[in-house]
Amino acid sequence: MKRILLVGKINDAVKGIEEVLGASFHVQICPLHVEAFKDIMKVVKPDLFLISLVGSYEDQSAVFNTIKLEHSNIPVITIGTEYEKKSFLNFYKSSQFENLIRPVDNRVIMEAVCKRLGCTLLVKGDVFEVLEQRDKKLVLVVDDNAATLRSIKEMLQEDYEITVANSGMKALTQMGKKRPDLILLDYEMPVCDGKQTLEMIRADEDFKDIPVIFLTGVSDRGHIEAVLNLKPAGYMLKPAIKEKLLAAIKDKVK
Question: Taking each helix axis from N to C terminus, what angle separates 146-156 and 242-252, rounded to the nearest 10 degrees?
Fold first, then answer.
């Protein structure tokens, strides 16, 4: 069951949202206080943040900043008026954040949540049924550039489940939690580069057969030959083009 962290002033509206979502998702309420938010995040690993914009601007701003800096891979849905949203416009420039204009009915909330979580919503009168999609293949994207990670995730998330890592070591940690079906691996990374990361992946009996497609920003012949000598499942020049990337992944993941 997908996990939602519902952040806001504890009032009847927030409790009502909890009741609606609680039938289909695991919902944890967090008071609108940044320290409480940080404490809860030490033990809760949500798939989505749902934030009520009613309340203290200072705490909302601190929570938003914490999410952007420390949890950039988790989608955020806020509920608020245009005026309440106005103070946070810079955050909505990122696809991580979206706002539902208050007042909003339960069906709109459920539709937005399901879209972000990749679930199918069935509506029968006033009854909601959520079907989680379990057939998406998992793609791990490894790159030290945060903008590249965001861009590739946006390109692929409609068709694949995406996890990201900004280093080779973090990639191996992610793989230990959930085995990916394919890896997109940056060749030019500091400390532990793509070649070293690939060697570690192939040295692990559980991971050695996972197809790895290299991403590289260098296009000279010698560099490409060095990449191909490692015999990856493929390689692609950055910045990646969505159509070519999807075609390359589809060819390797059945």
Answer: 70
CB 249 within 8 A of CB 155: no
Cβ contact 191:148 at 8 Å: no
Q: What is the pLDDT of residues 111-154, one digit of tens each?
A: 999 999 988 899 988 889 998 765 678 999 999 999 999 999 99
What is d(CA 164, CA 148) in angstroms, rounded to the nearest whole number? Answer: 10
**Element containing residue 119 per DSSP (H, E):** strand 119-124
**Residue labelled with tokens 């008026």:** 81
Answer whether 195's CB lies under 8 Å from 230's CB: yes
Q: Which of 242, 249, 243 is nearest to 211 (CA)?
A: 249
Specify the pTM: 0.55
3-132 under CATH 3.40.1280.10, yes or no: no
- What single DSSP character describes residue 188? S
Name the β-bridge partners of 124: 127
Pick the CATH number of 138-252 from 3.90.1150.10, 3.20.20.140, 3.40.50.2300, 1.10.238.10: 3.40.50.2300
